[in-house]
Amino acid sequence: MSRIAYVNGRYVPHAQAQVHVEDRGYQFSDGVYEVCEVSGGFIIDRTRHLDRLDRSLSELAMAWPVGRDALGRIMIEVTSRNRVRDGLVYLQVTRGVARRDHPFPPPGTPTALVVTAKSTDRRAFAEKAEKGVAVITVPDNRWDRVDIKTIGLLPNVLARQQARDSGAAEAWMIDEDGMVTEGAATNAWIVTMDNVLVTRPAENGILRGVTRATALEAAAKLGLAVEERGFTVAEAMAAREAFMTSATSQIMPVTSIDGAPVANGHPGETARQLGRAFFGAAEKIAVAGSLSLEKR
């Protein structure tokens, strides 16, 4: 079955999905995006993702491309048409098509919307989580508004490529004070020797991760102690455990940093506990091929 994409009001074959050459996302990275996990036939944490989309659009003075409820139904429909049971559903909103000029286009210019979905290999993901992954550290050279989930991701792209070239799965970014901010596409966590989970506050300097928020809820249900504060690379290397969270990696153990093992170099029990508890804590929207399905 060929993949299907939603592009500005139409469901089209993925291979034929196109946007205009003067779409402001293409010209200026003038757009925002969200990625939701699909697990076991459910879209995970859709409400939180749409809440964050609303904030990103507001911060960039950008209009919703369609109503919020309509967008939620489109996400279900695209996921269903692509028969995705385990995978990702991606949505991107740009300021639309206009003559190339830095200021915003005239009022009334419609924003543009693209939604796609794809399956991922759940078995390969589980095998990776069982072994853990390596990360490297890089200077954080992004703009200050990393709290907006913009499609302007070139520093993140370069950091991820540097990680891949080093044989690692992710790059953790380090600020001017030597503190870990977040990964190129993940939030960063450690577990101290006193068994306290530590992750940087999401008020500034990092993206307010949706998976991060659900992981915090799962930790509370498990009775785990949590501190929202910064931590250094040295503290991470001396930690009992480290892991990262995102819609694409869920809760992924980190077993080495810059080539040095974290603890014994194997995934720790806290990350395993959170991984087992995550699905129960998350919001789940059933797909199942119908636009009328409600929350389960």
Description:
The relative contact order is 0.15. The protein is built from eight helices and 16 strands. It starts with a strand and ends in a 10-residue tail after the last strand. It has helices at residues 24-28, 46-59, 68-81, 122-131, 154-165, 210-222, 233-237, 269-281, and strands spanning 4-7, 10-13, 31-39, 42-44, 87-94, 112-119, 133-139, 170-174, 180-183, 187-191, 196-199, 225-228, 241-246, 250-257, 260-261, 284-286. Strand 8 and strand 9 (180-183) form a beta hairpin. It has two domains: 4-120, Aminotransferase class 4, branched-chain amino acid transferase, N-terminal domain (D-amino Acid Aminotransferase, Chain A, domain 1, 2-Layer Sandwich), CATH 3.30.470; 125-281, D-amino Acid Aminotransferase, Chain A, domain 2, CATH 3.20.10. The strands form two sheets. Strands 7, 8, 9, 10, 11, 12, 13, 14 and 15 form a nine-stranded mixed beta sheet that branches. A seven-stranded antiparallel beta sheet has the order 2-1-6-5-3-4-16. It comes from Oceaniradius stylonematis. Its cofactor is pyridoxal 5'-phosphate. This is Probable branched-chain-amino-acid aminotransferase. Keywords: Amino-acid biosynthesis, Aminotransferase, Branched-chain amino acid biosynthesis, Pyridoxal phosphate, Transferase.
